[in-house]
Amino acid sequence: MVADLQRRLVELRFVNGIEKVEHVPFPTGDQFWVHFNRPIDFGKLETIARKHGCFVVEFGGLPSKLSRGLAEMLTDGITHIITKKVTGWMKFAASLGSEPDGIAKIATDLHGPYEIFIATEEEGIQILYEYLGLQYTPPEPVKPAAPIKPPMPSPAKPTPTAPRPAAPASGTPKPTTPPQPLQSGQSSTPQAPPAATSP
User: Fold this and answer.
1) Positive or negative CA dihedral for 101, 102, 104, 110?
2) 25 falls in which pLDDT band (50, 70, 90)?
3) Are 32 and 26 contacting, i.e. CB atoms less than 8 angstroms apart?
4) pLDDT, tens digit, for every residue of 71-86?
5) Cα–Cα distance between 89 and 116 in angstroms, integer?
6) Where are the beta strands (DSSP E) in the chain?
7) What pLDDT is stored for residue 24 in this prediction?
8) Could you tell me the residue ranges of all domains in the chain?
9) Is 88 left (phi over 0), alpha (psi -120 to 50) or beta?
10) Residues 6 or more apart in contact with residue 16 via CB below 8 angstroms
11) Sheet of strand 115-119, all strands in order from the earlier edge strand to the far edge
12) Sign of the CA dihedral 65, 70, 71, 72?
């Protein structure tokens, strides 16, 4: 995957030998296209690729012998693939038009006489910068997103409790003073107070 696409666009836009640069999104991953305005030096490109443990493999040799329109339809104009590993079988399959997994590819520009360098991985960008004689700066590491903390619940407020109503009184009210014990000779029936005597 190619990183820092916007920075790459700015860095390469006005470099000598480059016609234009563009970011081309694909469902399989973003690609970084660099249109050259002069022929690519494949000897130099192969030397740089080998320093990075990669190989430049010719692609679509047999289909390219067909008419240009048919050859471009079969190979999408791709002429070379930069790949990390290569075998004799892979070279043979690539010559027939079976595209190996690679980090970059070279295609013929349909609107001009020169090539397009198409980077599909960050290592392809590194080889491109070295080919152009530019200082390669690796992309900034992606910072992991901080986990979103769930909102802290607010402390539960105590629910105000209403005072309980007093229980209704049932039966006769209780006397506030305890009853006095009866003395001998007194009757339990209340007696009327003595009548007042006139003077």
Assistant:
1) negative
2) confident
3) no
4) 455 556 788 889 987 7
5) 26
6) 18-24, 31-36, 55-58, 78-83, 104-108, 115-119
7) 85
8) 41-116
9) alpha
10) none
11) 18-24, 31-36, 115-119, 104-108, 78-83, 55-58
12) positive
Structure tokens at 20: 């234009």
Shortest CA distance to 90 belongs to which of 45, 57, 47, 54?
A: 57
How far, in Å, CA of 16 to CA of 38, rounded? 10
Three-class DSSP category at 67: coil
Residue 142: count of CB within 10 angstroms of its CB: 7
Token readout for 121 is 């991985």
CA pair distance 67, 129, nearest whole angstrom = 34
Residues in contact with 180: Cβ distance below 8 Å, sequence separation at least 6, in sequence order = none
Q: Which of 53, 52, 65, 100 is nearest to 80 (CA)?
A: 100
Output the pLDDT for position 57.
85
